[in-house]
Design brief:
The protein is of the alpha/beta class. It has 2 domains: about 150 residues, D-Maltodextrin-Binding Protein, domain 2; about 140 residues, Periplasmic binding protein-like II (D-Maltodextrin-Binding Protein, domain 2, 3-Layer(aba) Sandwich), CATH 3.40.190. The chain is about 35% helix and about 20% strand. It has 12 helices and 10 strands. Strands 1, 2, 3, 4, 5, 6, 7, 8, 9 and 10 form a 10-stranded mixed β-sheet that branches. Helix 5 links the parallel strand 5 and strand 6. The longest helix has 17 residues. The termini are far apart.
Length: about 325
């Protein structure tokens, strides 16, 4: 039998080849802040894909500030998949992501609609705050910097004319709930599927109210300026102490991907996740996933371009022509 001698150079070459092969089979899925719905969905999709060996690759989940950062990461190819709001994705493509960011973020494609994310403005019943206008001079948690929550808070509060008259605090949901309970905030804003863990946490420690933000959004033209928002009602008893239905507005939380992700990878992932088994799995991760369906799979994507793998899947299902 011949002996094969491996030199240090040969071993090094094999190591480089192995590293390249592994890295070529990994995709990054950017979620959101701890305690946020984005992170649950990113983890749920990635876990189901990995556990069932849907594609010949490993999907790695990473946390992020949220929607705005995710659009940037996907556009710059620093993430392959992410969760983002339809509004942020659309505005980013137009160079209108924020007043301080007029860059056009290209290469971001929609994959699927996941759920509707409503604005939730939480105050204490004892505070006497009955509308968003009452927050002038108050400390308000508006979401982590770079998050969709913070971006939507700025659009709303600027739209009704009080952004510069209140004191915005850029805190993630869990930190905001804790600060609220410690009397360090007068209110906090959540832009997420309900029930939201951070609001549940706050309601367990305080007597809370949710503010009707829809009326002001309509009155001051916020809904007209940002037509990707739609009306909804958060049912009474969603949270402890919330006795009435609350009118609000929502954006669509979408699964997005970089255009360079191969068509077959996106197609296979959709084909697996949007089955009875896949959808049941998603609901076990987060009840908000009850909103996911084949029939509504492209909701909220009208102003966006679909990924080629998504086009193939949704055409196959008869959702698009």
């Amino acid at each position: 039998m011949k002996k094969v001698l491996l030199t240090a150079g040969t071993i090094a070459a094999f190591s480089v080849m192995a590293t390249t092969a592994v890295s070529a089979q990994m995709y990054k899925f950017s979620g959101g802040p701890s305690g946020g719905t984005f992170q649950y969905f990113a983890a749920g999709i990635s876990q189901y894909t990995n556990d069932n060996k849907i594609v010949d690759a490993k999907i790695n989940v990473s946390a992020s500030a949220g929607s705005v950062q995710n659009v940037r990461l996907v556009s710059m190819k620093k993430a392959d998949f992410a969760i983002a709001y339809a509004g942020d994705t659309y505005l980013a493509s137009q160079g209108k992501l924020s007043p301080k960011d007029d860059r056009k973020y290209t290469g971001v494609k929609a994959v699927a609609y996941l759920y509707g994310a409503p604005a939730q403005l939480i105050v204490k019943k004892s505070a006497g705050i009955k509308s968003a206008a009452d927050l002038v001079g108050k400390k308000v948690g508006v979401g982590k910097g770079g998050s969709g929550a913070a971006a939507n808070a700025e659009r709303f509060f600027k739209g009704i004319g009080i952004w510069d008259k209140m004191k915005p605090e850029f805190l993630g949901y869990n930190n905001a709930a804790a600060a609220f309970s410690n009397n360090q905030l007068d209110a906090f804003w959540v832009f997420s599927g309900y029930p939201t863990a951070a609001v549940i946490q706050a309601a367990q420690q305080n007597d809370i109210d949710l503010i009707n933000v829809y009326t002001d959004a309509e009155k001051f033209g916020v809904l007209k300026k940002y037509p990707f928002y739609s009306a909804l009602t958060i049912p009474a008893k969603t949270y402890r102490g919330q006795d009435n239905d609350i009118k609000s507005f929502q954006d669509s939380a979408l699964w997005i991907a970089n255009e360079k992700v191969p068509e077959d990878v996106v197609y296979k992932m959709l084909k697996a996740v949007f089955t009875d088994k896949g959808l049941k799995h998603m609901v076990t991760i987060k009840k908000t996933a009850k909103q996911m369906s084949v029939e509504g799979g492209t909701k909220g994507t009208a102003e966006l371009e679909l990924h080629p793998g998504a086009i193939k899947f949704w055409k196959e299902k008869g959702v698009i022509k």
